[in-house]
Amino acid sequence: MIPHPSPAVLARAVAVVGLLSCTLPWTCAQSAAESKVTVGIFSRTTVVQVFYRSAIWKAKMQAKLDEQNKAVTGGDAAKADQIDRELTAMQALAQKQLTGDAPLKNILDELKEDWPAIAKEAGVDLIIEAPLYQATGARVIDVTPSIVKRLMARKSP
Predict the structure, then answer these.
(1) Are 128 and 37 in contact (CB under 8 A)?
(2) In the chain, N or C: fewer CB atoms in 10 Å?
(3) Which residues of the chain form beta strands (DSSP E)?
(4) The predicted structure's pLDDT at residue 8
C-alpha cells in the first residue's frame, strides 16, 4: 500500500515547481544575450561616388535640366533661376556628403527596399556606416560591394 503524502510534502513540491517555472524565462533571456550580432559596415566615399555616377542620379539630373530648358524656352526666367539654384544646391550636397559633412539620407532612401536583401546577401544583422569602437573579435563585414551592386543595377526611375 502506498502512503499518502502529507500536506507539507505537497506544499514543498508545489513551491519547487513554482520556483523552477520562475527561473525558466530568466534562463532563456540569458542564453539570448550570448548570441552575437554581425555588423555590416560600408565605405561612405565609395557609396557617394557610385550613387552620383549611377543611372538613378543621371535620370534625376536630366529631368532637372529638361525642366530648366523648358523654363528658358518658355521665357520663365524666374523658374530657370530657381532650378539653377537647386542644381547648385544638389552639387553642394554631393560635395558635403563626400567629405562627411552632410547625411546620406537621399542615397540611403534610394536603397530602402533593398536593405533586407543587402543584409541577407552579406550575412549581417545590422548595417551602419562605421563603428566608433570595435572590440577584438567583433563580427564586422564590409557590405559596400553589395550596396554598389544594388546601386549599379538600378535603372532610372
Answers:
(1) no
(2) N
(3) 39-41, 126-128, 140-142
(4) 57
